[in-house]
Each structure stands twice: as structure tokens, then as C-alpha cells.
Specification:
The protein has 214 residues and is mainly alpha-helical. The chain has 2 domains: 13-71, no CATH class; 84-213, no CATH class. The protein is built from 8 helices and 6 strands; from the N terminus they run ααββββααααβααβ. The strands form 3 sheets. Strands 1-2 form a two-stranded antiparallel sheet. Strands 3-4 form a two-stranded antiparallel ribbon. Strands 5-6 form a two-stranded antiparallel ribbon. α4 packs across α5 (120-146) and α5 (120-146) packs across α7. Bound molecules: zinc ion (ZN). Zinc ion binds at residues 37, 39-40, 42, 58, 60-61.
């Protein structure tokens, strides 16, 4: 503190004589090219930062940033969002898997009900409940545990939080039911992924999730 102050006092007469021209262009330059740190969100001149693909990181955040990359947790600005069509592909794969599983479970259950001499309404209700239970279980278990359904895994997609972290079982459950809202109004909620800048569907907005390419 004190040496710095005495230096500036000593330098004062020199500064008074010489114009501050040498310092001015450097300040102007660093002011012109600065970036937001993808980790802490602070703005720094480029000279104090490192660039990583589309993201800039300040010197202070560099160790955390590198650590996160090693752990596979993507910082803000590095997530590679998956678009509408590949996500639709994943849904189709999941739909086919669920249809096949549903077919065998329904066959077994319905023949059991028919054996008891029950009516058609009972069969339909049972079929509906089996289908719903199967969908919920399939989505929550796979997404909660792996961050992706088998369809998304097959296409290398993953559901994450905005900072790249896993979404967990509870959010996976909420996201599944939020998906019903996206299905209303002719699937406009799903199509929103096509024009959102972070490719969020309606259920991603509701649950604060993103779908990325691994
Ligand atoms: Zn930072």
C-alpha cells in the first residue's frame, strides 16, 4: 500500500510533463475486445482470459472450468443444444420400444382379465393404466439415472440443467408430466425447440432443463 502510494507521488511530476498517450491506446483496445466469463459471468479484457471453442473464461475461473470439462460438466455457453429433428428421432425410438413392451404386458394382463370373465371397459382401463405406468417408469428411471431415455442414448442426447449438471429423478418426473402440456395444441410445445435460442421445448422451459448432444 505505502510503497505504491509513494511511487505514484514520485511519478506525479513526470506524468504532469508527459502526455498519457502510451497508455490510452492500450486501454481503448482492451475496452473494445472483452468477453463475458462463461464461469462467473464477469466481463474481462481478452488479454486476461482464455478462449475455449465458443466460450471465454477469466484467469480466476480457469482451474474450475478445466475441472468441469474433465468431469464432463459443461459450463454455460459450451452446451451443444440438440435441435427439434434429432429430438423427434429420439421420441420415435422410445415410442417403438414402449409399444413393444406395452404389447407384451397388455397381452399377458388382458388374457388374465378375460380369463376372469370381465367386460371390455375393464380391459381398456387396464390397458390405459399399464401404458401410463410404463411411460412414467421408463422416463423417470432412465432420465433420473442416466439423463436420457434409450432413444436419446441411441442418438447421443442428454437432458441436463442449464449448467450441464444432471437433472435427477424428481425433475425427471416433473418433466415427464410437463411433456403432456407440450403435447397439447398440436405439439406446439415440442416444436418450440425448433426456434428457441437454447432449443428448449415448453417442458424444458417449465422444468429449466436443456437437451444437449454429448
Ligand atoms: Zn470468471
Amino acid at each position: 500500500m505505502l510503497p505504491a502510494m509513494s511511487t505514484s507521488v514520485a511519478a506525479a511530476p513526470v506524468l504532469a510533463q508527459a502526455p498519457m498517450m502510451p497508455a490510452a491506446p492500450a486501454m481503448l483496445f482492451s475496452g473494445m475486445s472483452s468477453h463475458r466469463c462463461a464461469e462467473c459471468g464477469g466481463t474481462f479484457p481478452d488479454s486476461d482470459m482464455i478462449a475455449f471453442e465458443s466460450a471465454w473464461v477469466c484467469a480466476g475461473c480457469k482451474p474450475i472450468f478445466i475441472q468441469k470439462l474433465k468431469e464432463g460438466i459443461a459450463p454455460l455457453g459450451v452446451l451443444n443444444y440438440a435441435g427439434f429433428w434429432i429430438r423427434t428421432g429420439a421420441y420415435v425410438i422410445d415410442w417403438i420400444i414402449l409399444q413393444i413392451v406395452n404389447f407384451f404386458i397388455s397381452m399377458a394382463t388382458i388374457s388374465f382379465i378375460r380369463g376372469g370373465g370381465r367386460v371390455a371397459g375393464m380391459v381398456m382401463l387396464t390397458q390405459f393404466l399399464i401404458g401410463l405406468t410404463l411411460q412414467v417408469t421408463y422416463n423417470v428411471l432412465f432420465v433420473g439415472r442416466f439423463g436420457a431415455t434409450p432413444g436419446k442414448m441411441a442418438l447421443n442426447l442428454k437432458i441436463v440443467r442449464p449448467n450441464g449438471e444432471p437433472i435427477g429423478y424428481a425433475r425427471a418426473l416433473g418433466r415427464f408430466f410437463a411433456g403432456f402440456l407440450s403435447g397439447l395444441l398440436l405439439f406446439v410445445g415440442f416444436m418450440m425447440a425448433g426456434w428457441d435460442e437454447e432449443k428448449r421445448a415448453l417442458h424444458d422451459r417449465i422444468c429449466d432443463t436443456r437437451v444437449i448432444r454429448r
